[in-house]
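Reviewers asked in the last cycle whether our approach scales beyond single polypeptides. To address this, we selected a multi-component target totalling 669 residues and predicted its structure end to end. The input consisted of the following lines:
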Amino acid sequence: MTATEIAPQLQPAGPLPKTREKIGRRFAYGFLILSITPILIGYTWLVVATISTRTEGLLPRNAEGGIGGFTLRNWDFVTDSAIWNAMLNSLLIAVAMVIGVGIASTAGGYALSRMKFAGRKTFLSMTLVLHAFKAEMLLIAIFFVLRFLGDIPIIGNYIGFNSVGGVALVMVALELPLGIWLMKGFFDNLPWDMERAALIDGASRFRVWWQIMLPQVRPGLAALSLFTFIAGWNAYLVPFTFTIGTKVANMPVFLNQLISDTAPTNWNQVAAVGMFQMIPLLIFFIFTQELLLNIYAGGSKGT
Amino acid sequence: MKVELENLSKSWDGVVGAEDITLDIADGDLVAFLGPSGCGKTTTLLMVAGIYKPTEGTISFDGRVVNEVAPKDRGVGMVFQSYALYPHMTVFGNISYPLRLQKLDKGDIKQRVQQVADMMGIGDLLDRKIAQLSGGQQQRVSLGRALVKEPQLLLFDEPLSNLDARLRLTMRGEIKRLQKDLGITSIYVTHDQVEAMTMADRIAVMSKGVLQAYDVPEALYDRPKTLFVAGFVGNPPMNFFDVEIRRTNGEFRARSEAIDLILPRDRAEKASTVKGKVTMGLRPEDVDLVADSSPAAAGLTLMGVADVVEPLGREDLVGVNIGGVEMRVLVDKTRGVVIGDNIELTIDTTKIQLFDPETEQSLLWA
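The resulting structure, written as structure tokens, was:
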């Protein structure tokens, strides 16, 4: 039988399925557009608000009530050192989390995936259960832990209550169950033979982990780092609870301090600070978009 | 290097992987571990490599017990079914990895890698990434990586299973030639009995973690010691029938409802100790159609109906129904057997095998 004889059977019979496919695609797009509209409106409002004196709905208004009244006054805060300090704190927390979670999750995930030791199963189920506890439930207990850590001479100043290090430490701990499970999953998917080959080639167990296994889970580590960075950058509850004053405040806490209970709040300035907080993440996303798509599409690429 | 396994066992929480394996491998020999999947052959291989620690027993290299020696200090090279190459490195990176771990001089490494790569016919692929190679090329890289450190012992874990049939044939010959040229003692794990028969100096047949037989290929084929070996070695597999052996008028006859054959005295006598039924084995190539020109002697033929005909190219594999019992027979294709033919078969009874159905041990080669 030749190819031309088979071909008609392989193609859809008649034009009907094609039209149906088109309608289906239109419906899907319509549904997606509809569902992201509220979010798009929200962001549009945010951008408009940051450059207006005041807004009514999505429309900027000037003093006379007409459309207009654009201003950059809302952005005056960029000359204030307090916001840069808050941004530095946010960055410190996020970076410390990426490093801490990255190291502990890859090492722990590998051990849980590949090694046999007493209490392995218990540990696995416990971390899963711990992940189910919300951070809010642990705040009071964590407060006492941080107070205790703060009493340790010298290093207590860096990891105790009301310190950036203390906040980072708590955030790392809260993020670890997810990180360890995620990395364990990636290690589980790697063939044992590759590891055995490396052991026979003369590598130590540590070297196998570092030189052979880690490069294979890079996409997973990248995804985890990204989640962790965002979690650290946007952290609010933990920094808000365990810091006092402006010196150790990070961006979300700083934003909250702008909203006063006693004086009228300049909401347009709040919007501008919120926007300012988003900018680094936006830039980050633009540059890593392709990588992210690869990670979400199916873990590691190639063989 | 001489390898000795003594009473080697491995189990995990009561699940037995390999049990009481004892065998010696002479220096320079290629020994095949043959058996169906899950028979413990890979488990045994990984114990020799040092990846698994034996639960019991010892492994000795040249008389030195190596149970506690780390894999990297055993001087073994291993080739895996999945190739187990490092995908983030180039071909050069893969082959040179064992040497780089030994912290050899850069120039030396380059020279040795090039030499091995040329030997494997991949000398011009050194800069490629692993994902850019075909399966056959990847297996050559894997073999190169095992050879580059000049091992005392080469371990193969079903290295050809992932290749297509034609490439498998080529690589089979290449590995055997290479192994003989270099004179490296080798263990070759496979479930393919043709691979084992063609490549190995000796074959260890395993089943359910137990060593069934350890002998040269011809001996396993002609004098199988157990029913399992008889059934597993040889393609197409041996036919088995339940028969009773009786002595009448000085003749030994194997009988069942469908079968009545005169057996040669030397073989049948050994089976006469068994009361009741014995299992008779007969290879498909030891049966032939009776030629019209020369009728066969009485008592050496069976009548049947062809109910399956599988052309193999050179021969036809014919399934013959003999009074309700199925028998596979290799027939010259010029005989033109078609389904439904009534055919008369002549049996080469001098090749017949006899087994005790209870113990599954051979009655001839105990």
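Chain B has a mean pLDDT of 90. We regard this as preliminary and will revisit it once experimental data from Aim 1 are available.
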